[in-house]
Write a structure and sequence with these properties.
The complex is a heterodimer of chains A (about 325) and B (about 325). Chain A is an alpha/beta fold. Chain A has helices at about 60-70, 90-100, 120-130, 135-150, 165-175, 195-210, 225-230, 245-250, 255-265, 270-275, and strands at about 10-25, 30-45, 50-55, 75-80, 85, 100-105, 185, 215-220, 230-235, 240-245, 315-320, 325. In chain A, strand 11 (about 315-320) and strand 12 form a beta hairpin. The radius of gyration of chain A is 21 Å and the shape is globular. Chain B contains 13 helices and twelve strands. In chain B, helix 8 (about 190-205) links the parallel strand 7 (about 175-180) and strand 8 (about 210-215). Helices cover about 35% and strands about 20% of the residues of chain B. The chains are: A alpha/beta (about 325), B alpha/beta (about 325). Chains A and B meet through helix 5, helix 6, helix 7, helix 8 and helix 9 of A and helix 8, helix 9, helix 10 and helix 11 of B.
Chain lengths: ~325, ~325
């Protein structure tokens, strides 16, 4: 249902759920409940596309990324990568997959080993996968990767602490590119950076996508960055996708009450626009994913909620071509 | 009438392994009673150190307030004995920090954090303080306030904790609140709730506010006047309208251009500020923004431009070429139209 005509998606997620058990007791541990981090989501990403996955903390966006990378084994659902279901693959069959999928993390301070030189950090995946046995050629490849990511090849001999946050994030990107992947999960990849540096890294990601024909899942909470980098955007709330559409369509015509509240909460850097804006903050706080509300998970905070919202869980419906909304009250 | 707060030529430095860092390098500005002033800048621009310097909360060593005056309500805070300064903090000036988990005491109940302030500064009895604490919690929108009083910070969500911080800051009816990145650690919908709360309360109670932030959207929504900082100095100051619609410093222009905007159609590429922020141990006598500036001339390497009036009376910029900056902006606007 989410395929564009004539293209096979590189990635398709069907009914994906990730429930983490909550246990009690030290000697005899028994399960007392579940944290429903991701609770049945569907989406697909076409080759060369950037899909944004947005939402507030605890909405399940990072867990979704980790399931796709198979850093977690999902509880239910399928993850079709290039047509093949990888959701149940055993560990040793994942090795081949790791070459094709990589990840860029948020914090360039904790995601690089402080005791390794930049050159070794980037060379490590190449070494682990045995792709380039010749140390000299491996070093050349590392230098290449550095300059592709806008860094001086001389940085191979530096340590992460000698670099700025922006430079470190470029090292993280170079490491992700080391295996020539086709798909990269960017998990809050630019969130920790200052605005002036953030824009540089956003541009780098876009350049790399074009140059190497990459496909991105861009997980972020900063909606403004997502609007500019992503072709399509999915909004998550408490483990579910509540709305999904082309980027401009979603931001100009949000239909789900949660998306509307989320967008109205983001201040725009222009006092004239702000003075004329209607502001509708969502009431209350995000409920716990251990005991999520019945029916539509947003109903306790929703200005449009009716009785039925407490009972029936809304499914994604296509309200306009390519614009999917999970709300029974949107007509 | 003199302004509520006047900072004059404030200098704060830190001794580090790599040399002396002039984190705040000669800053002057004012805050009028009841108004909201923003201090905006990126990491390392000195905005937080500047706020801590006002409160005399700079750890010494390694830090030191070198010179300058901080005139608050007619007194120079830098000259007060520590005893009196302690009564200014929390009573006359309230503070709200970024991380409510670390700025609230984890082993004291919510109620105790508020009543402690009241007993210290106003000599309130335990009973009166409790009553007032309940009022304050209700004022900041915490339901079931009697129960909350007996809870500890870890039992509250991030947004709730920040509400408690605001209640503590407002407990003694301060004249000024300094909020250092008050919502940076919070989710957007909660951020919006907290900022709206701070806005309505400061307006209702007539409290002046200094908001320190890197978020240009927050500044646009809440501040009437703005100081833009870069490498320890204010490079541009003015009304929000002037800063956003008639910026005269190349850094302000570049910064505004680099921010992706939620209300503008998708463009895959942004306009970053090229280069990296300066190494604060290696600043020379020239303008610190020079290596990243497309307007830079020879003079910028040798002289530091003064913060001077550009056009309107309260609009100041520290750039030799502010006239050219304005003209270039006009040109791009025309060619875009």
């Amino acid at each position: 249902m989410r395929d564009q005509p004539g293209t096979t998606p590189l990635l398709e997620v069907r009914g994906l759920a990730m429930h983490f058990p909550i246990t009690e007791g030290i000697v005899v541990s028994r399960k007392v409940g579940d944290v429903k981090a991701v609770d049945g989501i569907d989406f697909s990403i076409a080759r060369g596309e950037t899909l944004g996955l947005v939402g507030e903390s605890g909405c399940g966006k990072t867990t979704t990324g980790r399931c796709i990378l198979r850093l977690e084994k999902p509880t239910h659902g399928q993850i079709l990568y290039d047509g093949k279901d990888i959701s149940r693959l055993p560990q040793k069959e994942l090795v081949g997959l790791r070459k094709r999928m990589q990840v860029i993390f948020q914090d360039p301070y904790s995601s690089l080993n402080p005791r390794m030189k930049v050159g070794d950090i980037i060379a490590e995946p190449i070494r682990v996968h045995g792709l380039e046995a010749n140390p000299r050629r491996r070093r050349d490849k590392v230098r290449d990767l550095l300059s592709v990511c806008g860094l001086d090849p001389k940085f191979v001999d530096r340590y992460p602490h000698e670099m700025s946050g922006g430079q470190r994030q470029r090292v993280g990107i170079a490491r992700a590119l080391a295996l020539d992947p086709e798909f990269i999960v960017c998990d809050e990849a630019v969130s920790a950076l200052d605005v002036s540096i953030q824009a540089q890294v956003v541009n780098l990601l876009e350049d790399l996508r074009e140059r190497f024909n990459l496909t991105y899942l861009f997980i972020a909470h900063d909606l403004s960055v997502v609007r500019h980098l992503c072709q399509r955007v999915a909004v998550m709330y408490l483990g579910r996708i509540v709305e999904m559409a082309e980027s401009d369509e979603l931001f100009d015509h949000p239909m789900h009450p949660y998306t509307q509240a989320l967008l109205s909460a983001v201040p725009v850097p222009d006092p004239r626009v702000e003075a004329g804006r209607q502001f509708r903050p969502a009431r209350g706080e995000i409920p716990s994913p251990i005991n999520p509300p019945s029916g539509c998970v947003f109903h306790p905070r929703c200005p449009m909620a009716v009785d039925n919202c407490k009972k029936a869980r809304p499914t994604l419906r296509e309200m306009k071509p390519g614009h999917w909304v999970a709300c029974s009250e949107v007509k | 009438m003199p302004p509520l707060l006047e900072v004059r030529e404030l200098h704060t430095e830190f001794r580090t392994g790599a040399g002396i860092v002039r984190a705040v390098d000669g800053i002057s500005y004012t805050v009028e009673a009841g108004e909201t002033v923003a201090i905006v800048g990126e990491s390392g621009s000195g905005k937080s150190v500047e706020a801590l310097s006002i409160m005399r909360l700079i750890p010494n060593p390694p830090g030191r307030i070198v010179s300058g005056e901080v005139l608050f309500d007619g007194r120079d805070l830098r000259k007060l004995p520590e005893e009196e300064m302690r009564s200014v903090r929390g009573r006359d000036i309230g503070m709200v920090f970024q991380e409510p988990m670390t700025s609230l005491n984890p082993v004291l109940t919510i109620g105790r954090q508020i009543t402690e302030t009241l007993e210290q500064h106003q000599g309130a009895s335990r009973e009166d303080a409790d009553k007032r604490a309940i009022e304050l919690l209700e004022m900041v929108g915490i339901a079931d306030s009697r129960r909350r009083l007996r809870q500890y910070p870890h039992q509250l969500s991030g947004g709730m904790r920040q509400r408690v911080m605001i209640a503590v800051a407002l407990a003694c009816n301060p004249k000024l609140i300094i909020a250092d990145e008050p919502t940076t650690a919070l989710d957007v919908t909660i951020q919006a709730q907290i900022l709206e709360l701070m806005k309505s309360l400061t307006q209702k109670l007539g409290v002046a506010q200094i908001i320190i932030t890197h978020n240009l959207g927050v500044v646009a929504r809440y501040a009437s006047r703005v100081n833009v900082m870069y490498a320890g100095r204010i490079v541009e100051a003015g009304t929000a309208e002037a800063i956003y619609h008639d910026p005269r410093h190349p850094y302000t222009v570049a910064l505004l251009r680099s921010v992706p905007r939620l209300d503008q159609p998708r463009r895959a590429r942004l306009d970053p500020v090229e280069g990296s922020p300066p190494d604060l141990t290696k600043l020379d006598g020239g303008c610190a923004f020079r290596p990243r500036c497309r307007f830079a001339i020879d003079k910028c390497a040798t002289d530091y431009p003064k913060l001077e009036s550009v056009g309107e009376k309260d609009h100041l910029a520290a750039c030799f070429r502010s006239a050219e900056v304005a003209a270039a902006r006009e040109n791009t606007r025309e060619s875009a139209a």
